Structure formats: C-alpha cells, structure tokens
C-alpha cells in the first residue's frame, strides 16, 4: 500500500505543471473564476453528538452545488490547503483527460498548499458530481472516505419543467473503520448467479485461502451531512411534485431509499433522461450513481425517507419529509422487498446498434492477497500504479461493447470516465436506450454495455468502490 502512495507522490513531483499555482504574470488569472473550491480539513456536524473531522470542500458537506450550463465554458480555482496531493474529478462529464481529475489519465495533481485553475466546457446536461480521485489504500483519511464530494447540475438547453421544486440529496456515511466482514445488500438487484462464474470464484477462493480480506464499515450516516432527524426536513405541500436528485456519494456502499406511501417516477439515471419513466417504490443506488425522480406528494403526514437497512437508517441514513400542517413523530413503514431492474427504464422492443468490437473482462477476487486486502484482477491482471499500462486501445468513432463477467459475490458499481455508455444486457435481460456512467454488476452476474470512442485521450475504467479500485480493479483505455 505504502508503495502505491509513494509512487503517486513521486509522479506528482515529476510533473512540471502539477498544480503549478501559476498565479504570477498570467493574464487569465486576474479574472475571477466562476467557482472556487478549497480543500481543507473541517467539521461536519451530523448531530450534536456526532461531529466528524474530515477533508471537505469549502468547509462544508456536501460541497457547494455547482450549477453549470451545457456547452458553456466554466473556470474553477481549486486550492489544496492540505499536506497531500489532491485531484478533483468531474464525474459524468465528457471533458478532456487533463482536467477530468484522474492521475492515471494524466491530470496533474494539485500539490499540497498549491492551487490549479481548471477550465472546461460543461457537458452533457444533467445531474453530475465532483469528488476526490486520489488513492486511499489503507488510509481511511484519504480519497472518498473523506467528505470531498459535491453535486453538479448542468442545465439543459431546454428544461422540461414538469415539477414544482428540486431537492438535492447527497447520501454519505462517515467515521470509517476496517473489519473482516461486510454487509453488502445482496438483495438489491434482479438476475440470477451464473454457475460458471461461481465455479471460477470457487477456484480463486481455494487458491487464496486464509482470513477474509479487510472491508470498511461506518459509524454514522447522513443525508446532506445530517443524521436522520437532525437536519431541516424536506417541507412539502399536498399535490406538489418534487424532483429529487439523489446522489450516492459513498466510498463503497450500496444505498436504498424509500418514502412510505409514495412512489418515485424515475426521470433520469446518472443525469441522463430515461426512455421509459417507470414508477418504483424503492431506489437502489450503487456508489456514485445518481437518480432523478419525481415524487407526487399525495399522502399527507410526517415521514421518514430512509434506507431499507434498519442498521444504517437507525445510524442516520434518512431525512424527514414533512407535509405542511402535518404534526407528530416521523413515521417509517418498511416497504416490501424490491429488486432493482435497470431494464424497466429502457426502450421497449429495441436493440442498441451493433458494436464494432466486443471486449470481455473477467473479474476475480484474490482473497486477502495484498497485505490482508483483497486484490482484484481484470482478465488476470491487477492494475499497476507503477506502470499505468493501458489495457485496451480504442479507435475514435468506433463502438465498443464491454462484457463484464463477475466471478465474485460482491456487487460492483462499474464506472467509465469521460464517456457515457448504453446498457445492452443486465441481469440476463436485453435493453437499449439507458445511458449511464456507473452501473451495478451483481454477484456472479454479467453486464454488457456499449460506448462510442468519441472523446480522445486516456480514459479510466474502474469499480467505484474505493477499496476495490485501490487494489487492482481499474483499467486504462487509450486512443490509437
Ligand atoms: Cu468493486
């Protein structure tokens, strides 16, 4: 682990422009940036009894909502007031590698106590976010274990406007610690395990015997930085249509969310409008996923909108929804089990365009193989921070189908940088028209997705679980 972090520091030092704080004699710097982000240690008061010290943007959690306009250039000044190099990743935007915010793609680090002005043309429209992209490894005070996350909303050219009000909800846990056991929600997704993948997983297990690899657990949970019952409630009126933009800003958890007596009409996934706006009783979000959903407020009362997991909800994962005039203790009613099926938001009876090429990737867990941490391999190789060797070379304009085969029992939120992808087959079902940048892949299942190589430059693919990406679950794509 120490090796990875050292190599990153070395890498930063060798980049001449790494966060070079070019503040002197540069005309452009005299103009004020559209936004300023300051990375520094601060406090999050989740409740009067739970005040957490962690790294934040502008001293707050979540970081400030950044509103952008599609196709318009934005400048952001990022100051790093910490003692370690930092990176701000603009998740879900199709922007150049040099500003995307991943060292593996060549984005320069913002050096400790330095600053960097970032400038790019915002796109595509919709709900995006920004977060740190440094390696945490065994350091739970680094990476997405901190409070470095904030929402981005890119205004579309035409706003549909079929709602009365927008509410942003950033779901995030705090106070992490290591353990040897996990409690991942295994009942989240539709689809059945594939026998062949179970057998491959079993063989890997036999090869890597010994105690279970470390997992990360959390002591406190919250929405918009407040434990359930401690923040301002979402105040609504009867008949109002509220558009919720929900972000799972976790470092590795899968979240669910329900509002008793209400349905969510899904209008966008990862900020991209869905072809079919289906109504669901429960939201499931993998790490880094976003859901935009309209709720018609038709069931007066004071409600807990919360996670289905009793343990997480009782430790803060929820927010009160209060109708005007309603009184009393917030009520929680456990919904019936509900499995998430991405295909219900797809185009009916349609198939995606045929790909020019299909790339298969087999995901295998090597139990405890890296100093007690699980090591993850793609087609037998764990990503090396030393070599940063690209795994796949793509050609501009071609359409690629990625077929991921998961020989582990974990759910992996797979993320491709700088491109959106179209879901092709998930949970054993074909689909079309659902555009995303993160997709959950179920245990011992397969997922197929297509992307068009339309944004030249090094491009990172990885599992969005910090613990998985730091221990091998990454691949670099480069353009020919
Ligand atoms: Cu993973």
Description of the molecule:
The chain is mainly beta. The chain is built from 5 helices and 32 strands. The protein has helices spanning 2-14, 97-100, 195-207, 310-314, 466-469, and strands at 35-47, 50-57, 66-69, 73-80, 88-91, 115-121, 126-132, 149-155, 165-179, 215-223, 234-236, 241-248, 255-257, 264-269, 272-273, 279-280, 283-285, 290-296, 302-306, 318-323, 357-370, 373-378, 392-394, 399-406, 412-416, 421-426, 429-430, 435-436, 438-441, 446-452, 459-463, 474-479. Strands 9, 10, 12, 14, 15, 16 and 18 form a 7-stranded mixed beta sheet that branches. Strands 21, 22, 24, 26, 27, 28 and 30 form a 7-stranded mixed beta sheet that branches. Strand 26 (421-426) and strand 27 (429-430) form a beta hairpin. The chain is globular and about 60 Å long. The two termini are 32 Å apart. Mean pLDDT is 92; it is low at 1-27. The structure holds copper (II) ion. The site of copper (II) ion has 6 residues, from loops.
List keywords for this structure.
480 residues; mainly beta; seven-stranded mixed beta sheet; 32 strands; globular; disordered N terminus; binds copper (II) ion
């Amino acid at each position: 682990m120490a090796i990875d972090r050292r190599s990153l520091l070395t890498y930063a030092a060798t980049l001449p422009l790494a966060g070079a704080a070019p503040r002197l004699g540069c005309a452009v710097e005299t103009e004020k940036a559209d936004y300023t982000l300051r990375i520094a240690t601060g406090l999050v008061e989740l409740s009067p009894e739970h005040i957490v010290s962690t790294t934040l943007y502008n001293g707050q959690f979540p970081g400030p909502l950044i509103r952008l306009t599609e196709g318009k250039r934005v400048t952001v000044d990022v100051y790093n007031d910490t003692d370690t190099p930092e990176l701000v990743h603009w998740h879900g935007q199709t922007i150049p590698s040099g500003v995307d915010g991943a060292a593996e793609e060549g984005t320069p680090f913002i050096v400790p106590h330095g600053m960097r002005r970032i400038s790019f043309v915002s796109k595509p429209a919709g709900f995006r976010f920004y977060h740190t992209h440094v390696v945490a490894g065994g350091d739970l005070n680094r990476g997405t274990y901190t409070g470095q996350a904030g929402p981005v909303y890119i205004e579309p050219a035409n706003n549909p406007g079929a709602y009365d009000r927008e509410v942003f909800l950033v779901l995030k846990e705090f106070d992490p610690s290591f353990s040897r056991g996990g409690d991942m929600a295994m009942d989240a997704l539709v689809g059945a395990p594939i026998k062949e993948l179970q057998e491959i997983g079993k063989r890997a297990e036999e090869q890597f015997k010994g105690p279970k690899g470390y997992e990360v657990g959390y002591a406190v949970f919250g929405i918009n930085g407040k434990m359930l019952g401690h923040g301002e409630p979402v105040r609504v009126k009867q008949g109002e249509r509220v558009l919720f933009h929900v972000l799972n800003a976790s470092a590795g958890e899968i979240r669910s969310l329900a509002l008793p007596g209400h349905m969510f009409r899904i209008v966008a996934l990862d900020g991209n409008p869905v072809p079919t706006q289906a109504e669901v009783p429960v939201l499931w979000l993998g790490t880094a996923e976003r859901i935009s959903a309209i709720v018609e407020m038709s069931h007066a009362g004071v409600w807990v909108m919360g996670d289905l997991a009793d343990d997480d909800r009782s430790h803060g994962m929820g927010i009160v929804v209060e109708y005007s005039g309603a009184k009393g203790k917030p009520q929680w009613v456990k919904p019936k089990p509900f499995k998430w099926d991405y295909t219900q938001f797809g185009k009916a009876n349609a198939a995606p365009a045929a790909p020019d090429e299909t790339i298969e990737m087999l995901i295998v867990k090597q139990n405890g193989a890296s100093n007690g941490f699980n090591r993850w391999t793609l087609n037998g190789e764990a990503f090396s921070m030393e070599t940063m060797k690209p795994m796949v070379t793509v050609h501009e304009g071609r359409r690629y189908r990625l077929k991921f085969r998961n020989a582990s029992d974990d759910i992996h939120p797979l993320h491709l940088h700088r491109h959106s992808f179209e879901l092709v087959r998930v949970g054993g079902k074909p689909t079309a028209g659902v555009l995303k940048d993160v997709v959950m892949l179920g245990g011992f299942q397969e997922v197929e997705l297509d992307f068009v190589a339309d944004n030249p430059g090094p491009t990172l693919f990885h599992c969005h679980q910090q613990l998985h990406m730091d221990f091998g679950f990454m691949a670099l794509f480069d353009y020919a």
